[in-house]
Design a protein that fits this description.
The protein is 42% helix and 9% strand. With 358 residues, it is an alpha/beta fold. It folds into two domains: 297 residues, Rossmann fold (3-Layer(aba) Sandwich), CATH 3.40.50.970; 32 residues. Bound molecules: thiamine diphosphate and magnesium ion. Pfam families: E1_dh.
Amino acid sequence: MDAPTDEFYTVIGDGGGSLSDSRYDTAAARDLYRDMVRARRFDERAVALQRRGWMSGYPPFAGQEAAQVGAAHAMAEEDRLFPTYRSNALQIARGVPMSDILLFRRGRAEFHSDHDVPVFPQAIPIASQIPHAAGAGMAANYLDEEWASLVCFGDGATSEGDFHEGVNFAGVFDAPTVFFCENNGWAISLPSDRQTKSASIAAKADAYGIEGVRVDGNDPLAVRETVADALASAREGNPVLVEALTYRRGAHTTADDPSRYRDDDPDLPDWRIKDPIERFEAFLRSEGVLDDDAVERIRGEANDEIAAAIETAEDASLPDPDDLFDHVYAGPTGTQEKQRSELEAFLENHDPQELEFG
Ligand SMILES: Cc1ncc(C[n+]2csc(CCOP(=O)(O)OP(=O)(O)O)c2C)c(N)n1
Ligand SMILES: [Mg+2]
């Protein structure tokens, strides 16, 4: 099987198709746009909150909304999501409350609300979630259930052993799993062409006997179609690797300064580095799907939603510092016990609810 390298699927790119070229109607397209705006507003407010010491760090996803929201809208209700630290737009579009995501960044290990979206905790160690997702897919087979796993990761994660082990297992055991790679061009300061000599990320699927596809990751219609097809194929026992071509517009995290390692004018095509929300909005306006009133209403609702989420998060107590030591290993190690007593001694003189981050 030949994975495409310089080809990728797009609906709105290449001079622009029309909505009727896609599989989706006006309402579905407007919903995609709405979730992209909700996610962007979340991202902007989260960065601002971090800057005032509300949380210790935050990884912005601006620029990747089309990829993430497109993928979220392709998932069936019972499909399992395995996100990373950067997949917050995907979680928001899936229905995870914004306040839960904010509280995770304030140290909560578990979801605060009792939402029923089947989503695993976001992975911070790169690629560790990939074998988990393949294993979950195998579980769906054992249980004879119809759902698939969708696992998110970046271009950099494909250089980790866990990526290769996970994809290999899924291929061998026909695990219903979609490997969703957001190729945003960078792994912190390392550009994709220093990450791999492969002609594409999608090409790596070949080695494991599964299908690999490339899609315009800044076109939510194209991503939604591609991921919907990939999930359908996965549910039939054929896992798929999807490479969504996108770009991280901001810093890697709030602790990073990208001007130290990349130019403002990167060597990537315009469609990839431009704002996907502006691009999709222009498309929908030209299709008569959006006008000023609709845009204003959607933005207003997004502002209200994030404001309410921040209030909910501020009303919640901070986690017990002792939680830090739970679930790290099957049982506590000597080093952990030492760290726990050092923390206890520190907290005798400090109230954790009063501590400021940053
Ligand atoms: C196992 C592991 N090694 C190193 C790190 C440090 N680290 C955090 S993000 C990152 C780069 C990941 O790049 P990519 O997979 O492209 O995802 P992106 O951040 O671009 O979304 C690295 C090396 C980590 N979190 N986990
Ligand atoms: Mg990356």
